[in-house]
Amino acid sequence: METVHGPATDKILSPLPRPFRFALLSMYNGEPQLGTDGEHHKLDEDTRISPEQGIWLYNLCRQAKSKKTLEIGLAYGFSTLYFLAAIGENGGNHTAVDPFQSDWHGIGSRQSRNLNMSDSFRFIEEKSVPALVHLADRRERFDVIFIDGNHRFDDVLVDFILSAELCAMGGYIILDDMWMPAVRMAVAFVRSNRKDFEELKTPVSNIAAFQRKGEDARDWLHYVEFKDSNRRREIRRLAPALLRRGAKAISRIVRA
Ligand SMILES: C[S@@+](CC[C@H](N)C(=O)[O-])C[C@H]1O[C@@H](n2cnc3c(N)ncnc32)[C@H](O)[C@@H]1O
Q: How far apart are CA 89 and CA 16, in angstroms?
């Protein structure tokens, strides 16, 4: 992954209002960030959405005029900043769910305070399953939901199923990390079985996006087989890296 983001990132982020752009540039450039312990911490470079993904989310929220947004998986709050930027302009509020904020030094949960948006932000420090069930009990509805929490197949699928209950009619559910087989399988289920959701084409290959178009009208016997249609393409894409890793492992064994 790219470590230093230069003028290209600045250009991608240019639609954002200045405070959000500067906060994101500082994070993408790897500057240590203030945690809830009052210390600055170096960021793990793999835990973030890309500027392209973030701007796509921001534009979606702006175009849909979303006022209630939800994300599962906060970490350092890269995605949070794009949501807050849109909410700052649309009005409304953003909710983030994450049980492990201490692993990220509380950096994500501080973002709204840094931007004077504490009143527009709610942090639920809980696993997604109980958190989403509680939100459904309270009959809350969201215009855009971003799933980027635990990436195991069953967790992603359950996050989608519960998010579908919370998604407003015409609202959107976005899933991150389509490079992962577990996420692609969960998405394959949605594509084949959830005809109440229509898939959107996106220019960003690492996400899948669905719009809620109707009620879930399947009968209790309904089941359509599903398979990962991108598997071959992904294997071809990952093959050189896997082969390099294999060659390194063999040379380590030979040297030992
Ligand atoms: C890839 S990171 C999220 C990155 C974030 N969306 C961003 O762009 O900065 C995944 C996050 O999911 C959280 N997580 C793990 N299991 C979870 C669960 N069961 N429910 C909610 N969040 C979870 C982790 O603590 C981590 O913060």
A: 10
In angstroms, what CA-CA distances link 137 with 127, 143, 217?
A: 16, 17, 21
Cα gap 210→49, rounded to integer Å: 18
pLDDT in tens, 26-85: 999 999 999 999 999 999 998 999 999 999 999 999 999 999 999 999 999 999 999 999
Q: What is the pLDDT of residue 7?
A: 75
Q: How far apart are CA 216 and CA 116, in angstroms?
A: 39
Query: Average model confidence (pLDDT) for the chain?
Result: 92
Q: Kindly tell me if the per-residue pLDDT of 3 is higher than 50.
A: no
Please tell me the residue having the least CA distance from ligand 1 atom 27: 75
Tokens at 30, concatenated:
């790897």
- Closest Cα to residue 72, out of 31, 29, 128? 128
In this prediction the pTM is 0.90
Ligand 1 pocket mutation pick from 74, 83, 124, 147 by most atoms within 8 angstroms of CB: 74
* Model confidence pLDDT, tens digit, residues 216-249: 999 999 999 999 977 666 666 556 655 766 676 6
Tell me, in angstroms, the distance from the centre of ligand 1 to residue 175's CA.
12
Evaluated on CA atoms 177, 179, 180, 181, the torsion sign reads positive
Tokens at 134, concatenated: 């509680």
Helix/strand/coil for 251: helix
Q: Name 196's Cβ contacts closer than 8 Å, sequence gap at least 6.
A: 164, 212, 213, 214, 215, 216, 217
Look at the alpha carbons of 192, 196, 161, 163 in this order and tell me if their dihedral is positive or negative: positive
